[in-house]
Prior knowledge:
Layout: H1 8-12, H2 16-33, H3 38-53, H4 58-63, H5 67-85, H6 88-99, H7 106-121, H8 124-142, H9 147-160, H10 168-180, H11 186-207, H12 217-223, H13 231-250, H14 254-267, H15 273-278, H16 282-300, H17 303-312, H18 320-333, H19 337-345, H20 349-356, H21 361-374, H22 382-389, H23 398-423
Helix pairs in contact: 2-3, 2-16, 2-17, 3-16, 5-8, 5-14, 6-8, 7-8, 7-9, 8-9, 8-22, 9-11, 9-22, 11-21, 13-14, 17-18, 18-19, 18-21, 18-23, 19-21, 21-23, 22-23
Amino acid sequence: MTGISLPLASLLAIDPAVGSLTALLIVMAVSLTSRVNVGLLAIILAWAVGVGVAAWKTDAILGAFPSSLFLTLLGVTLLFGAAEKNGTLAAITARIIGACGGVVALMPLAFFLLASGVSAMGPGAIASTALVAPLAMSAGVAARVPPVLMALMVANGANAGNLSPFSAVGVIVQAQFLKAGLPPSTAGVFLANFVAHTLAALAAYLLFGGLKLARKKDVAAVAAPRNGFTGTHLFTIAVLAGWVASVVFFGINIGLGALAGATLLILAGAVEDGAAIKSIPWAVIVMVCGVSVLVAVVEKTGGIDLFTHLLSKIATPATANGMMAFVTSLISTYSSTSGVVYPTFLPAVPGLVAKMGGGNPLEIALSINVGAALVDVSPLSTLGALCIASLPFGGGDPKALFRTLLIWGFSMVVVGTLFCQFFIGWFA
């Protein structure tokens, strides 16, 4: 009878870190080869690993649920779903297409610059993506721009401005540099990150048909409604502007602020509550939040530490830049760049250089910055998740977008490694 009470880990001799990493690999494999909502699978595997292998209490699994991310996705999608249902997004889209002269090929570039500018002004990549992605994805659907192209332009744009000296994340990175005793390099930190993401965005523009969009001028003109703004539209725009201002200037929580804005629209009769709630992409939210639960289990069971330990053994002074970009990019794919990767790896740079017996500390630090950020378009990260959640209903297949962004995110592991190995020295 006593054997029945033993945790499964004791019976199978499974290391929790190994078990959690294996579970994450299974979820990634299924997401690439199946149309199943991997959020459900991720939750079940997180439960199995946490309780059966790591011998946690069930409450620990429940505590891993990303409530902040859930509220962000819920609030943003509800607010912009309401703006879509009452016709405001369609009216704004018409103006954007008009501002581009009807040239659809300019739209992805315009949203890249918009997301980059907003991010650099202070709120950072996550907030700017939350602000820009819903409008960009809606405009893209109206003009028949491939959703994956618009998502990559917005996410890369937001990350391109993320390490400006005015950005919240840029301030965090500079603080970590100071803490680690690294040479101050405000310009280098910003430029290395900006150039890398600009090149990635241009590659996406070419690979996903950006140039072909030049032939879609007539399509854009037909797809975009030309009627003016109504009173409901103007009221909705005022609410959206108030939400943006509250996030950028007053630090209001993105999700809760968006929920407040959506509630105001409903109470004012600017949108019918049932229609607004039906616009919430519940399947996407389940998928993203479910995977986030598993990611939390991976972090807490030591999966990240195991992964880092294995890869750090093969770094040398000659390969340190590319290797650190490789390691941090893989970790950042399923972990927080600003909340986990930067605070964990930047302070460790001097010690790593000492153990390797050489290497340029500033180049390694810049490699960490760039490598960790380039993969943030992955749907396992908040930026990619926000773009998928912002895809209008009927505007495309969110599961297909999930798979494409996942593949792109992992391809950026290789791209970031090569960029940092051969070119990061230009910015040091």
